[in-house]
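Dear Dr. K.,

Following up on our conversation at the group meeting, I've run the structure prediction for Nucleoid-associated protein CTEST_01010 from Corynebacterium testudinoris. I'm pasting the input sequence below exactly as I used it, so you can double-check it against your construct before we proceed with anything downstream. Let me know if the numbering doesn't match what you have in your notebook.
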Amino acid sequence: MTQPDMAQILAQAQEMQAQLQQAQAEILATNVTGTAGNGLVTVTISGGGEVQEVIIDPQVVDPEDVDTLQDLVTGAFRDAHEKAGQLAVEKMGPLSQGGDPFGGMLG
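The predicted structure tokens came back this morning:
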């Protein structure tokens, strides 16, 4: 059994680190929008979870029914958060799948 080439292992580790950093930067630079009430409330957040924008259609603003508006805003935030999580899985998935990142070279 031959010993793994440490230079090759280090090069692969550095390449994976660079890919990981690029994926993280792409996630942070991407905005996702969540909606509720068939688009009556939309919330846009960055991939890092920072709120960018909240839009509330005036027709859903009813002083007699604040509970519905609160539920719609909460639902839009949840939808945006789920989409941000999906974005992270899409961008980071191949880098965080586990397994053997060195293609069997160590074993």
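Two things stood out to me. The longest strand covers residues 31-36. Strands lie at 31-36, 41-46, 51-56.

Best regards,
J.T.
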